[in-house]
Amino acid sequence: MKVVVDHLYINGIPLLHLYKEGNERIKLPFVIFVHGFTSAKEHNLHYAYLLAKKGFRVALPEAKYHGERGFLSNENELMLKFWDIVIQMIQDLNEIKAYFEKKEWILNQQIGVAGTSMGGMITLGALTQYSWIKAAVCLMGSPYYQAFARQQIKMLKQEGVEISLSDEELNEQIDKLYDYDLSLHKEALANRPILFWHGKKDTVVPYDPTYQFYEDIKPLYQHNQDDLQFFSDENAGHKVSRQGVLWTVEWFEKHLQQNNRNEIKSSL
Hints:
By secondary structure, this protein is α/β, with parallel strands linked by helices. It has helices at about 45-55, 75-80, 80-100, 120-125, 145-160, 165-175, 205-215, 240-255, 260-265; strands spanning about 5-10, 15-20, 30-35, 55-60, 105-115, 135-140, 195-200, 230-235. It has nine helices and eight strands. Strands 1-2-4-3-5-6-7-8 form an eight-stranded mixed β-sheet, sandwiched between helices. α1 crosses α8 and α3 (about 80-100) crosses α4 (about 120-125).
């Protein structure tokens, strides 16, 4: 069966919408997949294709200053906008969900969010804001918003990048990330299923802090251990392996489809 790719604009947010041919108006489990920094929505079509083949409805949105929404060509300039991009996309997720909800395209509020790198960070930040996320996958992301921001500033200064804000203003900007920092709001997980994948040789988003977060939240899942998983790749850097892609699809199959299989079949 063919997979259809539609190009939509939702309140100015460009996105690709994928589903199996014939399923356009059928209620389906829904996954929003967010791309990484300096990437674009089209770069994650392989995830969306595999998910759509399994019977999901998938949205690949474009982040601010990226792809169709991009006009910053300098990576350092883009880096200075990093947290603006992250927070805007977290807000965009709610707009996207509301649109698909209004269309009556989502089955039983079965909604998942996933992403790579920056998209993984957006996924974790979104968990602090939205109870409607039923399952999540973080690929090469980090929940430590404030600590990561401080490290970014340190790195930019070491590279001689001119930062127009004073240290006081920078601290004010970092303070604004508090509400989205999952490492500071672990209770927001609320036992929702979450999968992590990370390469141990990642030099962009370090492996160790994310793995430490996983260890820290394990006690929260002591009564539902199957809902928390961390896959480590001994040899991978900042690139998701083929197995990581397949585990992502399997995670959403398990946590968004399992309890709805009969209803899904009856609607097809």
